[in-house]
Amino acid sequence: MTSGPQDAALRARARQVIPNGMYGHESTRLLPASFPQFFGRAEGAHLWDVDGNRYLDLMCAYGPNLLGYRDHRVEAAAAAQAALGDAMTGPSAVMVELAEALVSMVGHADWAMFCKNGTDATTMAMTVARAQTGRRRVLVASRSYHGAAPWCTPVPAGVVPEERAFITTYAYNDTAGLEAAVAAAGDDLAAVFATPFKHDSFEDQALPDPAYAQRARQLCDETGAMLVIDDVRAGFRLARDSSWSLVGVEPDLSAWGKCIANGHPISALLGSDRCRKGAGAVYVTGSFWFAAVPMAAAIETLRILRESDYLEHTVALGEQLRSGLAAAAAAHGFSVRQTGPVQMPQVLFDGDPDLRVGFAWAAAMVERGVYVHPWHNMFLCAAMTAEDIEAAVAAAGDAFAQVRASLPGLEPHPLIPHVLAGH
Ligand SMILES: *Cc1c(COP(=O)(O)O)cnc(C)c1O
Hints:
Helices cover 38% and strands 13% of the residues. It is globular. With 423 residues, the chain is α/β, with parallel strands linked by helices. The chain has twelve helices and 13 strands. The protein has three domains: 38 residues, no CATH class; 236 residues, Type I PLP-dependent aspartate aminotransferase-like (Major domain) (Aspartate Aminotransferase, domain 2, 3-Layer(aba) Sandwich), CATH 3.40.640.10; 37 residues, no CATH class.
Protein backbone atom coordinates (compact mmCIF):
# COMPACT_ATOMS: atom_id res chain seq x y z
CA MET A 1 0.00 0.00 0.00
CA THR A 2 1.25 3.50 -0.79
CA SER A 3 0.01 6.87 0.39
CA GLY A 4 -3.04 8.45 -1.28
CA PRO A 5 -3.21 10.43 -4.55
CA GLN A 6 -3.26 13.90 -2.95
CA ASP A 7 -0.29 12.99 -0.81
CA ALA A 8 1.60 11.58 -3.80
CA ALA A 9 0.92 14.73 -5.83
CA LEU A 10 2.14 16.98 -3.02
CA ARG A 11 5.27 14.87 -2.59
CA ALA A 12 6.05 15.22 -6.29
CA ARG A 13 5.63 19.01 -6.12
CA ALA A 14 7.63 19.19 -2.89
CA ARG A 15 10.56 17.36 -4.46
CA GLN A 16 10.84 20.26 -6.93
CA VAL A 17 10.86 23.08 -4.39
CA ILE A 18 11.95 21.59 -1.03
CA PRO A 19 15.30 19.76 -0.67
CA ASN A 20 14.59 16.01 -0.66
CA GLY A 21 10.90 16.88 -0.67
CA MET A 22 11.01 17.26 3.14
CA TYR A 23 13.58 17.59 5.91
CA GLY A 24 13.91 17.09 9.63
CA HIS A 25 11.93 14.88 11.97
CA GLU A 26 8.66 15.11 10.05
CA SER A 27 10.15 13.75 6.85
CA THR A 28 8.74 10.29 6.09
CA ARG A 29 12.06 9.22 4.53
CA LEU A 30 12.80 6.92 7.48
CA LEU A 31 9.24 5.63 7.84
CA PRO A 32 7.25 2.93 6.03
CA ALA A 33 6.51 3.91 2.40
CA SER A 34 2.76 3.91 3.05
CA PHE A 35 2.92 6.62 5.74
CA PRO A 36 1.30 9.88 4.62
CA GLN A 37 3.62 12.90 4.46
CA PHE A 38 1.01 15.67 4.41
CA PHE A 39 -1.92 16.32 6.70
CA GLY A 40 -5.07 18.33 6.21
CA ARG A 41 -6.34 18.92 9.72
CA ALA A 42 -6.30 17.82 13.33
CA GLU A 43 -8.87 17.84 16.11
CA GLY A 44 -8.65 16.42 19.63
CA ALA A 45 -6.88 13.05 19.51
CA HIS A 46 -7.19 12.67 15.74
CA LEU A 47 -5.63 13.90 12.54
CA TRP A 48 -6.61 13.59 8.89
CA ASP A 49 -4.17 13.23 6.03
CA VAL A 50 -4.61 15.24 2.82
CA ASP A 51 -6.50 12.32 1.30
CA GLY A 52 -9.06 12.47 4.10
CA ASN A 53 -7.96 9.36 6.02
CA ARG A 54 -8.47 9.73 9.76
CA TYR A 55 -5.96 8.56 12.38
CA LEU A 56 -5.87 8.25 16.13
CA ASP A 57 -2.58 10.13 16.51
CA LEU A 58 -0.17 8.45 18.90
CA MET A 59 2.60 10.89 17.89
CA CYS A 60 0.87 14.11 19.04
CA ALA A 61 2.91 16.23 16.61
CA TYR A 62 6.09 14.72 18.14
CA GLY A 63 5.19 16.30 21.46
CA PRO A 64 3.39 19.64 21.14
CA ASN A 65 -0.11 18.19 21.45
CA LEU A 66 -0.80 17.47 25.13
CA LEU A 67 -4.45 18.44 25.72
CA GLY A 68 -5.74 17.56 22.26
CA TYR A 69 -5.42 19.40 18.97
CA ARG A 70 -7.26 22.74 18.85
CA ASP A 71 -8.29 22.55 22.51
CA HIS A 72 -11.11 25.08 22.63
CA ARG A 73 -9.97 26.70 25.89
CA VAL A 74 -6.41 27.26 24.65
CA GLU A 75 -7.62 28.41 21.23
CA ALA A 76 -10.03 30.90 22.84
CA ALA A 77 -7.19 32.38 24.91
CA ALA A 78 -5.00 32.60 21.79
CA ALA A 79 -7.80 34.21 19.75
CA ALA A 80 -8.50 36.78 22.47
CA GLN A 81 -4.83 37.79 22.51
CA ALA A 82 -4.66 37.77 18.68
CA ALA A 83 -7.43 40.36 18.64
CA LEU A 84 -5.17 42.62 20.71
CA GLY A 85 -1.75 42.02 19.17
CA ASP A 86 0.92 39.37 18.76
CA ALA A 87 4.44 40.37 17.64
CA MET A 88 4.71 44.02 18.65
CA THR A 89 7.47 46.59 19.22
CA GLY A 90 7.57 45.51 22.84
CA PRO A 91 6.26 42.58 24.87
CA SER A 92 2.76 42.31 26.30
CA ALA A 93 1.86 41.95 29.97
CA VAL A 94 1.24 38.25 29.31
CA MET A 95 5.03 37.73 29.27
CA VAL A 96 5.27 38.61 32.96
CA GLU A 97 2.17 36.59 33.76
CA LEU A 98 3.59 33.52 31.98
CA ALA A 99 6.95 33.85 33.75
CA GLU A 100 5.09 34.06 37.09
CA ALA A 101 3.04 30.95 36.23
CA LEU A 102 6.10 28.88 35.34
CA VAL A 103 8.10 30.06 38.36
CA SER A 104 5.16 29.15 40.60
CA MET A 105 4.85 25.64 39.12
CA VAL A 106 8.47 24.59 38.63
CA GLY A 107 10.20 24.14 41.97
CA HIS A 108 13.76 25.01 40.97
CA ALA A 109 12.80 28.04 38.87
CA ASP A 110 13.28 31.63 40.07
CA TRP A 111 13.12 33.20 36.59
CA ALA A 112 12.06 32.46 33.01
CA MET A 113 13.17 33.51 29.52
CA PHE A 114 11.18 32.76 26.38
CA CYS A 115 12.14 31.71 22.89
CA LYS A 116 10.54 29.72 20.05
CA ASN A 117 12.01 26.22 19.79
CA GLY A 118 13.50 23.66 22.11
CA THR A 119 16.85 24.14 20.39
CA ASP A 120 16.75 27.84 21.32
CA ALA A 121 16.19 26.91 24.96
CA THR A 122 18.87 24.21 25.20
CA THR A 123 21.40 26.40 23.38
CA MET A 124 20.57 29.29 25.70
CA ALA A 125 21.04 26.98 28.69
CA MET A 126 24.57 26.24 27.49
CA THR A 127 25.33 29.92 26.89
CA VAL A 128 23.95 30.96 30.28
CA ALA A 129 25.90 28.19 32.06
CA ARG A 130 29.12 29.33 30.40
CA ALA A 131 28.43 32.99 31.14
CA GLN A 132 27.66 32.16 34.77
CA THR A 133 30.73 29.97 35.36
CA GLY A 134 33.26 31.51 32.98
CA ARG A 135 34.06 27.96 31.88
CA ARG A 136 33.82 26.08 28.58
CA ARG A 137 33.27 22.33 28.98
CA VAL A 138 29.75 20.85 28.70
CA LEU A 139 28.86 17.18 29.33
CA VAL A 140 25.97 15.61 27.46
CA ALA A 141 24.75 11.99 27.43
CA SER A 142 25.71 10.27 24.20
CA ARG A 143 22.80 10.03 21.71
CA SER A 144 20.54 12.28 23.80
CA TYR A 145 18.73 14.68 21.49
CA HIS A 146 19.03 18.34 22.50
CA GLY A 147 18.08 19.92 19.17
CA ALA A 148 19.43 20.65 15.72
CA ALA A 149 22.03 23.41 16.26
CA PRO A 150 25.64 22.65 15.25
CA TRP A 151 26.64 21.81 18.85
CA CYS A 152 23.99 19.08 19.18
CA THR A 153 22.51 17.98 15.82
CA PRO A 154 22.63 14.20 15.43
CA VAL A 155 23.69 14.42 11.76
CA PRO A 156 27.23 15.75 11.22
CA ALA A 157 26.76 17.21 7.70
CA GLY A 158 27.73 20.88 7.66
CA VAL A 159 29.16 20.87 11.17
CA VAL A 160 32.88 21.41 11.83
CA PRO A 161 34.50 19.67 14.84
CA GLU A 162 35.47 23.03 16.34
CA GLU A 163 31.77 23.74 16.97
CA ARG A 164 31.80 20.81 19.39
CA ALA A 165 35.27 21.42 20.78
CA PHE A 166 34.07 21.64 24.39
CA ILE A 167 31.29 19.07 24.29
CA THR A 168 32.06 15.73 25.98
CA THR A 169 29.73 12.75 26.06
CA TYR A 170 29.00 10.33 28.88
CA ALA A 171 26.63 7.35 29.03
CA TYR A 172 23.17 8.07 30.48
CA ASN A 173 22.60 6.42 33.89
CA ASP A 174 26.32 5.54 34.16
CA THR A 175 27.31 7.22 37.43
CA ALA A 176 30.96 6.12 37.29
CA GLY A 177 31.23 7.32 33.68
CA LEU A 178 29.77 10.68 34.64
CA GLU A 179 32.21 10.98 37.54
CA ALA A 180 35.12 10.25 35.19
CA ALA A 181 33.91 12.83 32.65
CA VAL A 182 33.52 15.45 35.40
CA ALA A 183 37.03 14.67 36.68
CA ALA A 184 38.47 14.93 33.17
CA ALA A 185 36.84 18.35 32.71
CA GLY A 186 38.79 19.60 35.72
CA ASP A 187 38.21 23.26 36.49
CA ASP A 188 36.70 23.97 33.05
CA LEU A 189 33.28 22.36 33.62
CA ALA A 190 30.39 24.72 32.85
CA ALA A 191 27.43 22.34 32.72
CA VAL A 192 26.13 18.79 32.85
CA PHE A 193 23.13 18.16 30.58
CA ALA A 194 20.61 15.36 31.05
CA THR A 195 17.22 14.51 29.62
CA PRO A 196 14.61 13.55 32.27
CA PHE A 197 14.77 9.93 31.15
CA LYS A 198 16.61 8.18 28.34
CA HIS A 199 14.33 8.76 25.35
CA ASP A 200 16.66 8.16 22.43
CA SER A 201 15.48 7.03 19.00
CA PHE A 202 15.87 3.43 17.78
CA GLU A 203 16.40 2.00 21.27
CA ASP A 204 14.67 1.08 24.49
CA GLN A 205 13.90 3.98 26.79
CA ALA A 206 15.17 3.97 30.37
CA LEU A 207 14.01 5.82 33.47
CA PRO A 208 16.72 7.72 35.35
CA ASP A 209 18.50 5.80 38.08
CA PRO A 210 17.91 8.06 41.11
CA ALA A 211 21.52 7.45 42.20
CA TYR A 212 22.78 8.80 38.85
CA ALA A 213 20.50 11.84 39.01
CA GLN A 214 21.46 12.62 42.59
CA ARG A 215 25.16 12.15 41.86
CA ALA A 216 24.87 14.54 38.89
CA ARG A 217 23.47 17.15 41.31
CA GLN A 218 26.27 16.49 43.82
CA LEU A 219 29.01 16.70 41.20
CA CYS A 220 27.65 20.03 39.98
CA ASP A 221 27.54 21.31 43.56
CA GLU A 222 31.12 20.16 44.17
CA THR A 223 32.50 21.69 40.97
CA GLY A 224 30.31 24.78 40.67
CA ALA A 225 28.96 23.59 37.31
CA MET A 226 25.31 24.08 36.28
CA LEU A 227 22.97 21.08 36.09
CA VAL A 228 20.72 21.41 33.04
CA ILE A 229 17.61 19.27 32.53
CA ASP A 230 16.35 19.18 28.96
CA ASP A 231 12.62 18.93 29.65
CA VAL A 232 11.68 19.96 26.10
CA ARG A 233 10.09 16.60 25.30
CA ALA A 234 9.01 15.22 28.67
CA GLY A 235 8.21 18.44 30.53
CA PHE A 236 4.70 18.41 32.06
CA ARG A 237 4.09 14.90 30.68
CA LEU A 238 5.56 13.29 33.81
CA ALA A 239 4.90 15.91 36.48
CA ARG A 240 3.42 19.37 37.03
CA ASP A 241 6.96 20.41 37.97
CA SER A 242 10.42 19.76 36.54
CA SER A 243 10.62 16.06 35.58
CA TRP A 244 13.52 15.37 37.95
CA SER A 245 11.34 16.47 40.86
CA LEU A 246 10.26 12.79 40.64
CA VAL A 247 13.77 11.69 41.68
CA GLY A 248 14.24 14.50 44.16
CA VAL A 249 16.73 16.50 42.10
CA GLU A 250 16.48 20.20 41.29
CA PRO A 251 18.49 21.42 38.30
CA ASP A 252 19.93 24.94 37.98
CA LEU A 253 18.51 25.35 34.49
CA SER A 254 15.72 23.60 32.60
CA ALA A 255 14.75 23.84 28.93
CA TRP A 256 11.07 23.59 27.96
CA GLY A 257 9.16 23.60 24.69
CA LYS A 258 6.87 21.34 22.70
CA CYS A 259 3.65 21.10 24.76
CA ILE A 260 3.86 24.15 27.06
CA ALA A 261 1.37 26.07 24.88
CA ASN A 262 -0.38 22.97 23.50
CA GLY A 263 1.01 23.47 19.99
CA HIS A 264 1.55 27.22 19.87
CA PRO A 265 5.16 28.15 19.11
CA ILE A 266 6.98 28.99 22.32
CA SER A 267 9.78 27.50 24.40
CA ALA A 268 11.34 28.57 27.66
CA LEU A 269 14.51 28.50 29.69
CA LEU A 270 13.89 28.39 33.43
CA GLY A 271 16.62 28.95 35.97
CA SER A 272 17.41 29.35 39.62
CA ASP A 273 19.01 32.33 41.29
CA ARG A 274 22.28 30.39 41.10
CA CYS A 275 22.59 31.43 37.46
CA ARG A 276 20.51 34.60 37.31
CA LYS A 277 23.69 36.63 36.82
CA GLY A 278 24.77 34.60 33.79
CA ALA A 279 21.28 34.80 32.33
CA GLY A 280 21.38 38.57 32.67
CA ALA A 281 24.78 38.80 30.98
CA VAL A 282 24.09 36.99 27.69
CA TYR A 283 22.56 38.59 24.60
CA VAL A 284 19.82 36.29 23.30
CA THR A 285 16.77 37.34 21.34
CA GLY A 286 14.59 36.71 18.30
CA SER A 287 12.05 38.58 16.20
CA PHE A 288 9.21 36.32 17.35
CA TRP A 289 10.37 35.42 20.86
CA PHE A 290 8.16 38.05 22.51
CA ALA A 291 5.01 37.37 20.51
CA ALA A 292 1.99 37.49 22.81
CA VAL A 293 -0.37 34.91 21.28
CA PRO A 294 1.70 31.83 22.16
CA MET A 295 2.24 33.28 25.65
CA ALA A 296 -1.51 33.65 26.17
CA ALA A 297 -1.94 30.08 24.91
CA ALA A 298 0.75 28.90 27.35
CA ILE A 299 -0.88 30.66 30.32
CA GLU A 300 -4.16 28.90 29.57
CA THR A 301 -2.43 25.55 28.97
CA LEU A 302 -0.66 25.79 32.32
CA ARG A 303 -3.92 26.68 34.08
CA ILE A 304 -5.49 23.52 32.66
CA LEU A 305 -2.47 21.45 33.71
CA ARG A 306 -2.80 22.75 37.28
CA GLU A 307 -6.57 22.32 37.47
CA SER A 308 -7.32 19.14 35.51
CA ASP A 309 -6.43 15.45 35.81
CA TYR A 310 -4.68 15.44 32.38
CA LEU A 311 -1.63 13.72 33.89
CA GLU A 312 -3.46 10.96 35.76
CA HIS A 313 -5.70 10.47 32.71
CA THR A 314 -2.81 10.05 30.25
CA VAL A 315 -1.05 7.66 32.66
CA ALA A 316 -4.22 5.53 32.98
CA LEU A 317 -4.58 5.43 29.18
CA GLY A 318 -0.90 4.59 28.84
CA GLU A 319 -1.28 1.65 31.21
CA GLN A 320 -4.31 0.46 29.25
CA LEU A 321 -2.36 0.70 25.98
CA ARG A 322 0.70 -1.05 27.40
CA SER A 323 -1.16 -4.04 28.80
CA GLY A 324 -3.40 -4.25 25.73
CA LEU A 325 -0.47 -4.25 23.31
CA ALA A 326 1.43 -6.82 25.37
CA ALA A 327 -1.54 -9.20 25.34
CA ALA A 328 -2.25 -8.67 21.61
CA ALA A 329 1.42 -9.22 20.72
CA ALA A 330 1.64 -12.38 22.81
CA ALA A 331 -1.57 -13.72 21.27
CA HIS A 332 0.14 -13.59 17.88
CA GLY A 333 3.48 -14.91 19.03
CA PHE A 334 5.35 -11.60 19.15
CA SER A 335 7.42 -10.27 22.01
CA VAL A 336 7.46 -6.46 22.12
CA ARG A 337 9.53 -4.28 24.41
CA GLN A 338 7.48 -1.36 25.70
CA THR A 339 9.75 1.02 27.56
CA GLY A 340 9.69 4.43 29.19
CA PRO A 341 6.79 6.12 30.96
CA VAL A 342 3.47 4.63 29.78
CA GLN A 343 2.28 8.03 28.52
CA MET A 344 5.42 8.29 26.32
CA PRO A 345 5.77 4.72 25.05
CA GLN A 346 8.50 3.26 22.84
CA VAL A 347 7.51 -0.02 21.17
CA LEU A 348 10.22 -2.24 19.67
CA PHE A 349 10.10 -5.91 18.67
CA ASP A 350 12.40 -8.61 20.02
CA GLY A 351 14.39 -10.39 17.32
CA ASP A 352 14.01 -7.48 14.90
CA PRO A 353 17.55 -6.09 14.43
CA ASP A 354 16.79 -4.09 11.25
CA LEU A 355 13.27 -3.09 12.40
CA ARG A 356 11.53 -4.77 9.46
CA VAL A 357 8.92 -6.33 11.73
CA GLY A 358 8.30 -3.04 13.53
CA PHE A 359 7.99 -1.23 10.21
CA ALA A 360 5.47 -3.77 8.92
CA TRP A 361 3.45 -3.49 12.12
CA ALA A 362 3.49 0.33 12.05
CA ALA A 363 2.36 0.28 8.40
CA ALA A 364 -0.45 -2.13 9.28
CA MET A 365 -1.52 0.16 12.15
CA VAL A 366 -1.57 3.25 9.91
CA GLU A 367 -3.62 1.27 7.41
CA ARG A 368 -6.09 0.72 10.26
CA GLY A 369 -6.25 4.37 11.24
CA VAL A 370 -3.82 4.39 14.16
CA TYR A 371 -0.72 6.52 13.63
CA VAL A 372 2.20 4.88 15.45
CA HIS A 373 5.97 5.22 15.05
CA PRO A 374 8.39 2.34 14.49
CA TRP A 375 11.46 3.83 16.24
CA HIS A 376 10.64 7.08 18.06
CA ASN A 377 8.83 7.34 21.37
CA MET A 378 5.14 8.06 21.04
CA PHE A 379 2.90 10.38 23.08
CA LEU A 380 -0.58 10.15 24.55
CA CYS A 381 -2.75 13.24 24.89
CA ALA A 382 -5.48 14.15 27.33
CA ALA A 383 -8.13 14.23 24.59
CA MET A 384 -7.81 10.47 24.12
CA THR A 385 -10.42 8.24 25.71
CA ALA A 386 -10.46 4.66 26.98
CA GLU A 387 -12.51 3.84 23.85
CA ASP A 388 -9.75 5.28 21.62
CA ILE A 389 -7.18 3.07 23.32
CA GLU A 390 -9.49 0.07 23.10
CA ALA A 391 -9.81 0.68 19.35
CA ALA A 392 -6.03 1.04 19.03
CA VAL A 393 -5.49 -2.25 20.84
CA ALA A 394 -8.06 -3.97 18.59
CA ALA A 395 -6.28 -2.57 15.52
CA ALA A 396 -2.98 -3.76 16.97
CA GLY A 397 -4.30 -7.31 17.23
CA ASP A 398 -5.29 -7.30 13.56
CA ALA A 399 -1.97 -5.69 12.65
CA PHE A 400 0.01 -8.34 14.54
CA ALA A 401 -1.98 -11.03 12.71
CA GLN A 402 -1.26 -9.41 9.35
CA VAL A 403 2.47 -9.14 10.11
CA ARG A 404 2.57 -12.76 11.32
CA ALA A 405 1.07 -13.89 8.00
CA SER A 406 3.49 -11.80 5.90
CA LEU A 407 6.60 -12.46 8.01
CA PRO A 408 8.61 -14.62 5.57
CA GLY A 409 8.32 -12.01 2.81
CA LEU A 410 9.28 -8.91 4.83
CA GLU A 411 12.11 -6.81 3.42
CA PRO A 412 14.18 -4.31 5.38
CA HIS A 413 13.59 -0.60 4.78
CA PRO A 414 16.11 0.68 2.20
CA LEU A 415 17.71 3.25 4.56
CA ILE A 416 17.20 1.99 8.11
CA PRO A 417 20.00 -0.64 8.17
CA HIS A 418 22.48 2.12 7.20
CA VAL A 419 21.11 4.46 9.85
CA LEU A 420 21.38 1.71 12.48
CA ALA A 421 24.90 0.80 11.35
CA GLY A 422 26.03 4.37 11.98
CA HIS A 423 24.27 4.49 15.33
C1 LIG B 1 12.44 18.26 20.40
C2 LIG B 1 13.54 18.35 21.40
C3 LIG B 1 14.47 19.40 21.39
C4 LIG B 1 14.46 20.46 20.33
O1 LIG B 1 13.26 21.15 20.29
P1 LIG B 1 12.84 21.90 18.93
O2 LIG B 1 11.63 22.64 19.28
O3 LIG B 1 12.62 20.83 17.91
O4 LIG B 1 14.00 22.77 18.55
C5 LIG B 1 15.40 19.45 22.38
N1 LIG B 1 15.47 18.51 23.32
C6 LIG B 1 14.62 17.48 23.36
C7 LIG B 1 14.72 16.48 24.46
C8 LIG B 1 13.63 17.34 22.39
O5 LIG B 1 12.81 16.30 22.41
